[in-house]
């Protein structure tokens, strides 16, 4: 089979699975399998694939046609210009989370940070890459997610600067009081009642524990705010991603004691996305 022939077969398979950009995704699968850039595909459309390569590509397209996330099918995804290993058990990093990284970097130059709910490790790795003298602690309750984070830390040689911990309650972290310069988190924030209405790629494949934020979507934030009051040093920041304005407004109203609400930053679509507090007492 030539590149052009397999490209047609893959596109048909993906279209049958109701994938919107079937031809585009067929090209991505081909580039992934062959290790080529996209323009190479068009310049080499008569290149013969081995039967093994064709079989592998068909198998990948079938998975995608069953609405498995493209990132899981490829086994990697790009975030903040960094390629990260991802797969079942680990949330696919979203482009909107890059805004959280931007906000976190705007108030953190060096010191110790905590990434709560690290998933693939995307936020911690982006921050550590941009702040070479910083050290971090990346925590998740899910061992499956931590396995991907571990792979990614190894890939970017960050094991000496980022510790990976498994924990489900931020108040149980074995940290000294007032020892952190930054806490950053993209916690699960989808209200439980909305989970079923998500697109199949998300509702059928991504881990529920990475999505389900409880009845109002805010379950994970309350202990995190309490822990931030304990573990942030004076002048340290807490930056969290939120789902919408309603959540941002509700979080703003929570009496955090020592934390001072600083700002709510909206994304390019105008949706409030990141809430920022600063520890102002002591
Ligand atoms: C929305 S995902 C974010 C993953 C990653 N930080 C990102 O931005 O792509 C939330 C993460 O929090 C983790 N998580 C959920 N509940 C948790 C808890 N109680 N303690 C620690 N981690 C938790 C999930 O396993 C998941 O990896």
CATH structural fold name of the largest domain: Rossmann fold
**Biggest pleated-sheet summary:** 7 strands, mixed
Runs in which pLDDT lies below 50 for 5 or more consecutive residues are none
Output the radius of gyration. 21 Å
What is the CA-CA span between the terminal residues? 70 Å
SS class: alpha/beta
By DSSP, the count of extended strands is: 9
Mean pLDDT: 96
Output the helix-strand order: HHHHHEEHEHEHEEHHHEHEE
Helix content: 40-55%
Spatial ordering of strands, largest sheet: 5-4-3-6-7-9-8
CATH superfamily of the largest domain: Vaccinia Virus protein VP39
Number of domains: 2
Write the layout of secondary structure elements.
Blueprint: H1 3-16, H2 22-34, H3 38-43, H4 51-65, H5 70-74, E1 76-79, E2 82-85, H6 97-106, E3 112-116, H7 122-130, E4 135-140, H8 143-155, E5 162-166, E6 180-185, H9 200-203, H10 208-211, H11 221-231, E7 232-241, H12 245-253, E8 259-266, E9 272-279
Helix pairs in contact: 1-2, 1-4, 2-4, 6-7
The structure holds S-adenosylmethionine.
S-adenosylmethionine binds next to helix 7, strand 4 and helix 10.
Describe the structure.
This protein has 282 residues and is of the alpha/beta class. It has 2 domains: 64 residues, Orthogonal Bundle (Helicase, Ruva Protein, domain 3); 203 residues, Rossmann fold (3-Layer(aba) Sandwich), CATH 3.40.50.150. The strands form 2 sheets. Strands 5-4-3-6-7-9-8 form a 7-stranded mixed β-sheet, with helices on both faces. β3, α7 and β4 form a beta-alpha-beta unit. α1 packs across α2, α2 crosses α4 and α6 packs parallel to α7. The longest helix has 15 residues. The chain is elongated, with a radius of gyration of 21 Å. The termini are far apart. The mean pLDDT is 96. The site of S-adenosylmethionine (SAM) has 21 residues, from α7, β4 and α10.
């Amino acid at each position: 089979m030539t590149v052009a022939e397999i490209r047609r077969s893959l596109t048909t398979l993906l279209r049958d699975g109701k994938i919107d950009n079937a031809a585009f995704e067929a090209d991505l699968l081909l580039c992934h399998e062959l290790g080529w850039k996209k323009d190479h595909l068009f310049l080499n459309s008569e290149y013969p694939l081995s039967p093994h390569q064709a079989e592998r590509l068909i198998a990948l397209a079938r998975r995608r046609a069953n609405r498995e996330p493209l990132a899981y099918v490829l086994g990697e995804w790009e975030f903040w210009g960094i390629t990260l290993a991802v797969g079942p058990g680990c949330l696919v990093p979203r482009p909107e989370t890059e805004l959280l990284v931007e906000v976190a970097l705007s108030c953190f130059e060096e010191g110790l940070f905590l990434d709560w709910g690290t998933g693939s490790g995307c936020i911690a790795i982006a921050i550590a890459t941009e702040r070479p003298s910083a050290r971090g602690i990346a925590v998740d309750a899910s061992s499956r997610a931590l396995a991907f984070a571990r792979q990614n830390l190894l890939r970017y040689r960050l094991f000496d600067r980022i510790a990976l911990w498994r924990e489900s309650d931020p108040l149980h972290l074995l940290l000294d009081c007032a020892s952190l310069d930054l806490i950053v988190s993209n916690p699960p924030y989808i209200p439980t009642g909305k989970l079923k209405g998500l697109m199949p790629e998300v509702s059928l494949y991504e881990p529920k524990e990475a999505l389900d934020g409880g009845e109002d979507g805010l379950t994970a934030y309350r202990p995190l705010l309490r822990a931030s009051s304990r573990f942030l040093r004076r002048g340290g920041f807490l930056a969290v991603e939120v789902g919408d304005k309603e959540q941002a407004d509700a979080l703003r109203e929570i009496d955090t004691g020592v934390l001072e609400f600083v700002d709510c930053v909206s994304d390019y679509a105008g949706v409030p996305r990141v809430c920022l507090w600063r520890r102002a007492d002591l």
